[in-house]
Amino acid sequence: MTPIEPAAPVPKPGPAPVQGIGMLVGLLFLVLGACELIPGVTADNQLFGVFAVSGVWTLVHLLTGAAAVFCTRSAPLASRFLLVGGICYVVLGIAGLLPLPDAVTDVMPMNGAGVCLALGFGTAMVILGAGWLRYAPPRER
How confident is the model at residue 26, as a pLDDT? Predict the structure, then answer.
């Protein structure tokens, strides 16, 4: 009779790649929001002299960054954040292409560079979030 060997401890899986991507997106938005609050970086309501900003945009960027960092607790939550947040930014980018009333453009100013950034970044977030939902490893039951 042979002695029974103790079962090897199962290593705890590390964070999924989508969680790292979500954290990177969150930190990017937090840094962007912080840069919008620095007087030397933002002049004449323009960030780096290129992107139109306002107090509402700063708040949106800070809240998006905080939500992204919070949602990196689990892979499904991070991928859903990337998908939903990306869709929101794509919609904002498309809205920036439309002729909107002055009341809206005063609160959420969008110039050409901001529209391109919102559309590009939103599309990348949608692709990354949807891709992870589609090819995520099966859940253990």
Answer: 95
